[in-house]
Design goal:
heterodimer; A: 279 residues; mainly alpha; globular; B: alpha/beta; 6-stranded mixed β-sheet
């Protein structure tokens, strides 16, 4: 199999139509009144919010902006408003700084220098807010995790990944960029470096140790059962880069398959209850 | 051919996807078993790779012979033992058609392989998603008598062990990866397969926890009269030695002559019934 950027090419009109149909169908079947998206101003959440508005109408989509003083830039708010205006959905801003501080102050073992632990609090706090809004307004939470992040486990367990549906989770980051371009998301949102914005200066590519263009091809090769040596040879990258990505992908399954228990009885939740979803 | 010999039920846990480590553990157990006089050492189903490897099956699968079989054949030669183990077998004719196979190697190299005929695809099992069905029972002449191989869920289907016995197997080896909630079935059926075939029956099960599934161990050697001759502990790794003495088969074949009393004409009715189920 040839592994080039062309391998990732998709018919984005078709992809957009399928995702919009999926969102509309799910919202209608569930009986919910609409969707709440945690809107960070980044590529993924802006694209998901835009697709949601295209699917069910902007009036039924709320982009919840949840900034905090440490890592959320004014430009992110600007980008959130930009996409909301263009696709006609509402936004609401709730500053979560005071909630975070209350949490930090209440925890005896809190250590401000532990970036990852502290960052996870932010992601999980945003999850609490977005689910409150969804409950209160009888809406669904629409997640914006992409395939690159999910395969690499680059998300907070029970945090940013928590959602009722995740419409772009089968698209690699580079594919999300193309989809965003196709549906008309503004260029500054598409080209800016991706970041979970959990601490100042954090960027996804720095943390993942490779550019998304390269990472996505490695992941695409692994998805298609290619051997790491073949992937490294085709992409002209060091074998240990591919090995590292592969190890991380495999080791992060615990973040993707939640609700693991041990089998004790006849049929078990998460294992061999294979029930159809009611919506 | 030896009339009597010792075998080892090598009940191990496996590190999923780590063939190097699993092969090392198999080698250590073979050496330990040989020191206790065992000439046949039996390991669980898919013991080279671990059982619950899911999509990794494709990259872990090997041809037979292949690297792992060659490694274990060398160990068999060096230690003068026979070894039965399991691995996902890659068909030589394709790149992604795999079987759930049992392999026997001995001091003279590869003796034979068996491709699992009954692949569980229900409850927690998803074997048909990954494996192609095997089509042939497999019994082999060895220095330790004629030995037949079968795998786990095959034990629920008496025809597999019956075919092995009709092929002359004196010892039926069943390698397994059975989760704990199925223990009573296996404890009953392994004894039944020995009795109805008046043959020795060695069952070796996996232990350890994989993906929330707890494998119960309880490996055993059962005599042709259904007597429990050796038994490993439940749930933990164990290495247990049992003695096979083929002379025991004669008395039980006269006491419960199931082979003499076989009624081949009923098999046609079975076939008809199964086809119309």
């Amino acid at each position: 199999m040839e592994l080039t950027l062309a391998s990732l090419t998709m018919d984005y009109e078709d992809v957009s139509a399928k995702i919009r149909r999926f969102i509309k169908d799910y919202v209608e079947r569930s009986g919910a009144k609409g969707i709440v998206v945690s809107l960070s101003g980044g590529l993924d959440s802006c694209t998901v919010a835009a697709l949601s508005a295209l699917a069910i109408g902007g009036g039924k989509v709320l982009g919840l902006m949840l900034p905090e003083e440490e890592a959320h830039g004014f430009r992110d708010i600007e980008h959130s408003k930009l996409v909301a205006k263009k696709f006609g959905f509402k936004t609401e801003k709730v500053d979560i700084t005071s909630t975070l501080k209350a949490f930090y102050d209440s925890v005896p073992i809190f250590d401000a220098s532990e970036n990852v632990c502290k960052g996870n609090i932010k992601a999980r706090t945003r999850m609490v807010y977005v689910y409150y809004y969804a409950n209160r307004l009888n809406r669904l939470v629409c997640g914006s995790s992409d395939k690159s992040e999910v395969m690499m486990g680059y998300f907070t367990k029970w945090g940013d990944v928590a959602a009722d549906i995740s419409p772009i989770m089968d698209l690699y980051k580079t594919q999300v960029r193309e989809l965003a371009r196709h549906i008309g998301v503004s260029k500054p949102i598409i080209v800016k470096p991706s970041s979970p914005a959990l601490w100042p200066g954090q960027t996804a590519e720095d943390e993942l140790g490779t550019k998304y263009e390269q990472l996505d091809l490695v992941l695409y090769g692994l998805e298609h059962f290619m051997k790491p040596s073949e992937i490294a040879e085709q992409l002209k990258v060091k074998a240990n880069l591919v090995d590292r990505v592969k190890r991380r992908w495999l080791s992060m399954e615990h973040k993707r398959r939640l609700l693991l228990t041990t089998k004790l009885e006849y049929r078990t939740v998460g294992t061999d209850f294979r029930l159809p979803r009611s919506s | 051919m030896k009339e009597t010999f010792k075998l080892a039920l090598s009940q191990i846990s496996c590190e999923r996807g780590n063939k190097t480590q699993n092969l090392r553990k198999i080698e250590e157990n073979v050496i330990a078993a040989r020191r206790q006089g065992a000439e046949l050492v039996i390991f669980p189903e898919l013991s080279v790779t671990g059982y619950t490897v899911r999509d990794q099956s494709y990259e872990l699968a090997e041809t037979i012979p292949g690297a792992s079989t060659i490694t274990l054949a060398e160990i068999a030669k060096r230690t003068r033992t026979h070894i039965v183990f399991g691995l996902p077998e890659l068909s030589e004719k394709t790149q992604a058609t795999i079987y759930n196979s049992a392999v026997m190697v001995g001091p003279k190299g590869l003796i034979g392989k068996y491709r699992k005929m009954y692949l569980p695809t229900h409850s927690v099992f998803e074997e048909k998603r990954y494996f192609r069905l095997g089509y042939e029972a497999a019994a082999f002449d060895t220095d330790l008598g004629r030995i037949g191989l079968m795998i786990c869920y095959d034990v629920f289907f008496p025809e597999v062990s019956r075919l092995l016995r009709l092929q002359g197997a004196q010892l039926i080896v069943c390698i397994s990866a059975s989760p704990a909630i199925r223990r009573t079935y296996f404890e009953t059926l392994t004894a039944a397969r020995a009795i109805e075939n008046t043959a020795f029956f060695a069952y070796v099960n996996l232990v350890g926890i994989e993906d929330g599934l707890q494998f119960w161990g309880g490996s055993r050697l059962i005599g042709p009269q259904g007597k429990l001759l050796a038994k490993a502990t439940y749930d933990d790794e164990d290495l247990v030695i049992g003695v096979v003495d083929y002379a025991d088969m004669r008395s039980i074949e006269t006491f419960v002559p199931t082979l003499r009393d076989l009624r081949p004409e009923l098999f046609d009715k079975l076939k008809e019934g199964a086809e119309k189920l």
